[in-house]
Amino acid sequence: MARRIIAASLVILALILSVTAAMAAGPSLKLIKSDAAVVVELDKQAQTEGVAYYKNSKGVVSGPFKIKGVKLADLINLAGGMSASEKLVMVSSDGYVTELDYGKLNGEMAATRPDGSPVEGKPVMVPVLITWSDPGMEKDLPRLGFLSFVEGGLITESKYWARNVVEIKIVPAGE
Fold it and tell me: pLDDT value at position 11?
């Protein structure tokens, strides 16, 4: 009888420890290219930080948000990189899908200044998976967002942003 109690206690302790470890772990996601998949712990990757804004389809601007995250290009390099003939498909926990082509992965996307004025030349946005944010965007991490190192920041379209990203697939652009 005592052995059963001890064995049951050890099983319960193991369950508690595994749940606690899972809760303490930072955000992670699955990165898939071809038939290979790897789970990436985002808090163990190099982080960059800056200011971000986005504008929704009705023209309402949100931000500035001070954010920190992992550069998307660095994550893609963990899977062997991406060519111009491929695209990224990012899947959120609720099934929402965001796609980025090679140009957008490399920061080539439309942006405006916070005062609404256009940006001269090609703006360079840095796609990141947000792992930390000041109040206002601190929930539903990791999030796909876009940083700019232009003074004052730049605004991107919200349709490229995504919450609770759980999976990134690198697939042929035609799929």
Answer: 36
